[in-house]
Design goal:
Length: 720
Amino acid sequence: MAQYTRVSGSVGLITLQNPPVNALSAAVRQGIVDTVKRALGDPKVKSVVICGQNGIFCGGADIKEFGTNMSGPPLVPMIHAIEAANKPVVAAIEGSALGGGLELALGCHYRIAHSKARLGLPEVSLGLLPAAGGTQRLPRLIGVPAALDLITTGRHVTAAEALQLGVVDRVAEHSTVDAAVKFALSVAAKSLDARRISTYPCPRPSDFDALFEGAMQKVRQSARGAIAPVACVQAVRAAATRPYLQGMEREKELMATLFTSGQARALQYCFFAQRAVSKWNMPNGARWDTSKPRPVHKAAVIGLGTMGRGIAVALAQTGMSVVAVETQEKQLMEAKQAVSGMLERGAKRRGLTPAALHKISYSHDIQAVADVDLVIEAVFEDMALKKKVFQQLSAVCKPGTFLCTNTSALDVDHLASQTRNPELVVGMHFFAPAHVMKLLEVVYGPQSSPQAVATAMQLGKKMGKVSVAVGNCRGFVGNRMLKPYIEQAFFLLEEGATPELVDRALEEFGFPMGVFRMSDLSGLDVGWRVRKGDGLVESGSASGQPTRLREGRRYSPLGDLLCEQGRFGQKTGRGWYQYDKPGSRVARSDPWFHSFLEEYRARHGLVARRIDHQEVLERCLYVLINEGFRILEDGIAAGPEDIDIIYVFGYGWPRHRGGPMFYAGMVGLATVLERLEHYRQAHPDVPYLQPCSLLRRLVASGSPPVHRWREVIKKLHSQL
Ligand SMILES: CC/C=C/CC(=O)SCCNC(=O)CCNC(=O)[C@H](O)C(C)(C)COP(=O)(O)OP(=O)(O)OC[C@H]1O[C@@H](n2cnc3c(N)ncnc32)[C@H](O)[C@@H]1OP(=O)(O)O
């Protein structure tokens, strides 16, 4: 809806009203059409201001309407009518002007933004393009290079940057509506000839062809198969090469392809899934809206290895006081330097002074954490060591301190049992580098209090993370699903694939790195240590031939054999690939590994066969998805959205494919089930290929869309 009033005698004030973000729903669009008509027809009104209720101008088109039978007046003629008005129309931008919201403002003759407002055309992140004239007006207003940047990245700009770019005419420090009304009074009698952006010529840069070729190359590289960024470049190119109305036709044509695409559905699903995971609930009924977090003013990090350093940086950047503890003097000194460097670089990037530097105090004594509100333990991944740390923390910390562990797989309940107050213990599983990666798994056990979960979730949000609450099990959600995925990749090598082939298939699917390049980056020794701990590793050099079965299950010792040779990946300059030197990042095919693989196959009587990309994807991805269904069945994740967000934000799953569970729905659950059954028959010694009963049940109930899986899961749990 839109409210109409007349203010200051001659200004028609139109207020968009659709909480929480004044999205342009059918009712709002109708409201704008009606109120604009009223203002233009009122002889007492000499100029018009459009603003939004509750301090936010407009969050764009109503995304919930996409995929429905959209009714109500369309945006394009509505904005044209505003631009064509014979009375000045001023947009008063507070909070956000995004997508269709900014396009509406670009149709106005003037734009005034509050200094804290943010503006942008984020349609690309929803698999769309700004199709209400955004791709045609913005380049005319601010030039092609700047428009290309904003439209292809979807980034939000501050009011200051918007002013510098020429997106807005003025920035207001106090009431934007008051400033806009005052301004509207002052321009009431002025000619509008030079204020209609669609009439501007689009400036044609001298390096036109190189600019567009470069832009196209850039989006193709970074988009990894996403179609919207490519369409955005094409639409802006049309602005620079065609008259306005023809450009609008091209914009419409490109949007038509995007609007109904699977990628747009996937990206819009991700938008809502990201918001859904913040509304967490636990199997015991505790929920986000009934559990109050406790404020954290001072936090501590124990252990300043790579993870601890990143966590300390992320904590300090929230502005809170941080105590960083490392018992080894040398490591402490190195960490101090590294953390300061990270904070300084971070502040420089954001154009700030590194105030967070002074928020961190360092100590080698665990007693230093006595007065903190929350501790994050990030010592070496070793249960005995972590147990000891938790016993100490329980004795040292003031009553009520939350004790969190950054373990990536160990049993959080077991650590909780080492403390006097297990209800205060949760996992906070960060991803490396912890100050950069957006994902945080908040792991609760049966004893974790709702307040502990709420506090960890809120702290994660404060640290800029996308936090997902998950239950406690080996590897939690992300790493638990990764295990069968990696295992399949190893098996594919045994059967005839190469690391290059497997990685290419996964990278063409959209992962930034295939499984082997990723393994080289994170270090082969990490998994080796875990497998050793699990008693899976048999020494190959001693027996000459480690077996390929463990307790009746197929096992590939390939990773163990490479580790025995000291091939730990990038850090040693050798892994699944070779590198120019230790630490170098460019993976090159390694003839040594290829002959090693051939010898290995010969030794085990394995005959290499031709493996294609489809098999790589089906085996690696469907087995990971199958484990996702088991996780849902076990109640470790509350819904498919939680799993998808973990994979999109923590594991490089291509966002335009919506996350593994959404992808399964797109492929068709019956197809996933059939292919798993097929591979299970071919590999009866791989239990992970056994389709999970939830998947069978979903297929039996007609493969409902992903947003209806929770009903089936609920029914399943109530029957258990
Ligand atoms: C015809 C096709 C035309 C397309 C052009 C477009 O305009 S496409 C839409 C472009 N707009 C966007 O992409 C903006 C999306 N929204 C945001 O980025 C943020 O919500 C915000 C506006 C910056 C506000 O952020 P904040 O953190 O304050 O709130 P939330 O993100 O949690 O959102 C609050 C609730 O509002 C819902 N919501 C937000 N934007 C929209 C929208 N455009 N349409 C519908 N719903 C929207 C969001 O889902 C939250 O809902 P809850 O139910 O409370 O979870």
